[in-house]
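**User:** Hello, beginner here. Are you able to go through the protein record under this note? It all follows right here:
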Amino acid sequence: MNDVSVALLSVVLGALGQVILKKGAVKSGDLSLTLFSIHKEIINLMKIPEIIIGLILFGISFLLWIKVLSKNELSLSYPLVSLNYIIILFISVLIFDEPLTFKKILGTLLIVIGVGVVYG
């Protein structure tokens, strides 16, 4: 697998992890994250399957990203992470029924153009 493929796989897994964490976050309810409650909240979060799956996907994404960084320039690799915006935009519309606005489309298009400039 070439470096760009590994980077893209890392990006996709990170985005999917984010979406699954969102589903878990909705199940978790409001977190107070105070010094006295955080340990209980972490234990409760670890009981939510979507949280565990999201963290696993992030973990795999992290390992793949370390592989990418070990062999490539950061300034060339990191713009690929911005592709998460595109993935998240469309998944959010499809799964969470979030509105697809002109501003969101324009902003995402500008990101794509920016990544194209870096790699062009």
